[in-house]
C-alpha cells in the first residue's frame, strides 16, 4: 500500500502534529514503509503459536488484594488544613 502526500497530511492532522509542506513527501514514504512492514508480518504463519506477554516466561509474585488504610492515616491527615476525628473536614456545600 502506498501513502500519498494528501493522506500523510490527513494523518498528521489527525495526530495533531504540525508537518511542513516540504516534509510531507518524506512522511508519506515513511508511512508507506511502515505499512509495508505490517503487510510482511501478516504473511507470517502463526498457527499454533501461543501469544506471549514477555520475551521471558515468568510468573510475577502476587499479593493478596486486601483493602487497608495504608497504616499512615496520621501522616496523611497532618497535611490537611482541617481534620476532625480522623477525617478530612471540608466546608458544607449543600444545604
From TrEMBL:
Q: What class of enzyme is it?
A: ligase
**This enzyme's EC code(s):** 6.3.5.-
Print the keywords alphabetically.
Answer: ATP-binding, Ligase, Nucleotide-binding, Protein biosynthesis, Transferase
Q: Where is this region: Disordered?
A: 54-78
Q: Which SUPFAM superfamilies has this protein been placed in?
A: Glu-tRNAGln amidotransferase C subunit (SSF141000)
Q: What GO terms in the biological process aspect are recorded for it?
A: glutaminyl-tRNAGln biosynthesis via transamidation; regulation of translational fidelity; translation
Gene Ontology MF terms in the entry: ATP binding; glutaminyl-tRNA synthase (glutamine-hydrolyzing) activity; transferase activity
Catalytic activity reported: L-glutamyl-tRNA(Gln) + L-glutamine + ATP + H2O = L-glutaminyl-tRNA(Gln) + L-glutamate + ADP + phosphate + H(+); L-aspartyl-tRNA(Asn) + L-glutamine + ATP + H2O = L-asparaginyl-tRNA(Asn) + L-glutamate + ADP + phosphate + 2 H(+)
Subunit annotation? Heterotrimer of A, B and C subunits.
In which family does this protein belong, per the annotation? Belongs to the GatC family.
What does the function comment of this entry state? Allows the formation of correctly charged Asn-tRNA(Asn) or Gln-tRNA(Gln) through the transamidation of misacylated Asp-tRNA(Asn) or Glu-tRNA(Gln) in organisms which lack either or both of asparaginyl-tRNA or glutaminyl-tRNA synthetases. The reaction takes place in the presence of glutamine and ATP through an activated phospho-Asp-tRNA(Asn) or phospho-Glu-tRNA(Gln).
Q: What is this protein called?
A: Aspartyl/glutamyl-tRNA(Asn/Gln) amidotransferase subunit C
What species is this protein from? Algicella marina
Q: Which gene encodes it?
A: gatC
